[in-house]
Amino acid sequence: ILGKVTRLQYLQAANNNLSFVPEDGLKELSSIQSLDLSGNSLTEVNFTALQSSFNLTTLNLTGNAINNVNDSAFVNTTLHSLYLSLNLLSDVPSAALEKVN
């Protein structure tokens, strides 16, 4: 999506009616620290897109339609803050949260 914006640290993409994040859509954002995808229409967190986001510390997914969080959604991140309120989740697998500080 964003090409080679390798130095970008903060991305505010809230309220854009996004229904998915392409698998390679955030691949080049290796310096991203804060990603706000709140208020969109995302339905799951299966973000292969986050696999190279080693510096990501804050992820805001509030107010989407997320009903599923994949076990490995946050595996290569260093998250300190994860916001999932106002979604359609009945539970979040503990394996998905193992890497969240």
State the end-to-end distance: 28 Å
Biggest pleated-sheet summary: 4 strands, parallel
Globally, the shape reads globular
Number of helices: 0
With strands numbered from the N-terminus, the spatial order across the biggest sheet is 1-2-4-6
Assign a percent range to the helix content.
under 10%
Mean pLDDT: 86
Coarse structural class: mainly beta
Computed Rg: 12 Å
Any low-confidence stretches, pLDDT <50, length ≥5?
Answer: none
Strand content: 15-25%
* Strand tally: 6
Q: What is the H/E string?
A: EEEEEE
List the topology elements.
Elements lengths: L9 E3 L21 E3 L7 E2 L12 E3 L7 E2 L11 E3 L18
Parallel strand pairs: 1-2, 2-4, 3-5, 4-6
Describe the structure.
- With 101 residues, this protein is mainly β.
- The radius of gyration is 12 Å and the shape is globular.
- 25% of the residues are buried.
- The model has no long low-confidence stretch (mean pLDDT 86).
